Amino acid sequence: MKAKLSHFNYDLPKKLIAKYPVDNRDESRLMVVDRSTGKIEHKIFKNILDYFDDGDIMIFNNTKVFPARMFGRKEKTGAKIEVFLLRELNKEQKLWDVLVDPARKIRVGNKLYFKDKDENDILVAEVVDNTTSRGRTIRFFFDGTDEEFQGILNQLGMTPLPKYINRPPEDLDKERYQTIYAKEIGAVAAPTAGLHFTTELLKRMELKGINTAELTLHVGMGTFRNIEVEDLSKHKMEAEYFKITEDAAQAVNRSKTSSRRVCSVGTTSMRSIESAVSAEGLLKPMEGWTNKFIYPPYEFSIADSMITNFHLPKTSLFIMICAFGGHDLMTEAYEQAVKEEYRFFSYGDAMLIL
User: Fold this and answer.
1) How far is CA 1 from CA 297, 322, 349, in A?
2) Are 58 and 270 within 8 A, CB to CB?
3) How confident is the model at residue 175 (pLDDT cuts 50, 70, 90)?
4) Residues 141, 94 contacting (CB under 8 angstroms)
5) How confident is the model over 278-305, as a mean pLDDT?
6) Claim to verify: residue 189 and residue 302 sit in the same structural domain
7) Which CATH number characterizes residue 77's domain?
């Protein structure tokens, strides 16, 4: 049977989309779903270690969100333009792939001026190409070092909260829309399953003998793009850069071959490891781009458990969860989540699927 987009719809009251994180990262709620028994439990995230033992491993995505949303002024007219940085195309030439809004006003050859808080022009960019209806390639004019350029982008940019959070970013978002182990700069969205972990929780994991492995997948805007086709086999994911080191692959394979629990922290970690499976069904070191789209029916090779947040209907994230947890069981779990008023999406509560 072909997987159809309409199978992955459900009613989500808007009030359940979390606008702010809970006060303490590890005190969000945790729904625990056991695939073998169908049992659903309601816990607090800090209880998660009750389900893991010595020799088990959790796989984290250590990507770091950069302040990708900037506002500039168009030359001559002074019109305010949002520029959302997607990825750097060429470091030497300062070429970037961006989204602009409103796009109809921005044509090739236009210049955009960016001011600091004292209204001084500190950066200029020129539009050099159209890529999609909202997409543009722009070149920044800047003569300083890479560090200085990054400093100016940090000064001008804002935390790229997803649109559905429906509020401007605040100071707290700089810290909270970032995992505590974020290292590799390059994401325009946080790998949200990891937002629940605290330094104390990681320490408790270490004391219990639970291992960790880190990989990198730079989350792009494709994560939030609507799926436009009913037949899921025709949907094309946008490619995202990922990297799995030799050390990470070996650590995961040690747990896997010892029949210990292997847990993917988030859908981004899951996409990465499923993009790097060896002929023997083990994890292999790899660096490159993945556009893997996981939808039912799908045979997972590496992880036998996963931590994830609650996702919006008809998204690639919810579809992957259904592929892993089973469509009927995930539908039941989400019905309970709505009834029990769990908080949804980036700043929301978590689910552990065993």
Assistant:
1) 9, 15, 32
2) no
3) very high
4) yes
5) 96
6) yes
7) 2.40.10.240
Same domain, residue pair 15 and 146 = no
352 within 8 A of 50, measured Cβ to Cβ: no
Co-location of 78 and 36 in the same domain: no
Q: Among 308, 302, 232, 235, which Cα is nearest to 268's? A: 308
The count of other CB atoms within 10 Å of the CB of residue 37 is: 8
Mean pLDDT over 42-54 rounds to 97
d(CA 135, CA 212) in angstroms, rounded, equals: 37
Residue showing tokens 């065993």: 354
Same domain, 205 and 345: yes
Residue numbers of the domain that contains 196 = 5-65+174-353
Residues 103 and 236 in one domain: no
Asked whether the bond before 102 is cis by omega within 30 degrees of 0, the reply is yes
Closest to 75 measured CA to CA, from 120, 124, 119: 124
Torsion, Cα of 85, 131, 218, 139 (10° steps):
-40
Give SS3 for 150: helix
The two tokens of residue 142 are 């800047």
Instruction: Clarify whether residues 119 and 40 are in a common domain.
Output: no
CA 211 to chain CA mean position, Å: 22
**Secondary structure class of 274 (helix, strand, coil):** helix
